[in-house]
Amino acid sequence: MDITLVLYSHGFEHKLPASLIKSNRRSVGITINPGGEIIIRAPKLMPDTLIMSYVQKKAAWIIDAYKNQKNILPSDNFTKKSPQTLALEKRYKDAAKEYIPKRVEYYRVLTGGTYSKITIRDQKTRWGSCSSNGTLSFNFRLMLAPPRVLDYVVVHELCHLTHMNHSREFWNMVESILPDYKEQKKWLKDNGHTLQVP
User: Fold this and answer.
1) pTM (2 decimals)?
2) What is the pLDDT tens value at each position of the chain, 198 positions in all?
3) Cβ(29)–Cβ(41) under 8 Å?
4) Which phi and psi (to 5°) does residue 86 adopt?
5) What is the 3-state secondary structure (H, E, C) of 97-166?
């Protein structure tokens, strides 16, 4: 779930984009990835007020880490992309903007729910997301994956329109639409790092 952190440190207010992921874990964890992506992982039954209270206690660290990581290009090995690579990426992005919304509409008939818009992004560590306001975001690199894997990500995010968590009900809903979703999920986990434009 995409959220906006409002952090206070040294008398200043900082608003930072972040992702909140709830699962069957026992404690809150905070990760700031290269590029400035903030990911908060928390127990699924923990109230949001307690999660944010914990996050606020780490405000100074989060702000410093965010600033340090913001200008680091993840997984680019600090090399400048060639014009050919940039041109290829644009072609994949354009293709994703045309193809992925069609898959969303196809599966939305099965999942139900209402989304506000679809965005195609160049996310470094995420394949898709569903914000609280109904925005669905997808990584253009999914165009490099097998079609069934792309469909899994689409269904995953559409199901979040009904279940904004990773509860048993959520996964049951995913499985009711894609019975083989575990295979696609495992493929993405094992091979996602290979989905790079040459």
Assistant:
1) 0.62
2) 788 888 887 677 788 888 999 988 889 999 888 777 889 999 989 998 999 999 988 888 888 888 777 655 444 444 467 788 889 999 999 999 999 999 999 999 999 999 999 999 887 668 999 988 889 999 999 999 999 999 999 999 999 999 988 899 999 999 999 999 999 999 998 888 888 887
3) yes
4) -60, -40
5) HHHHHHHHHHHHHHHCCCCCEEEEECCCCCCEEECCCCEEEEEHHHHHCCHHHHHHHHHHHHHCCCCCCC
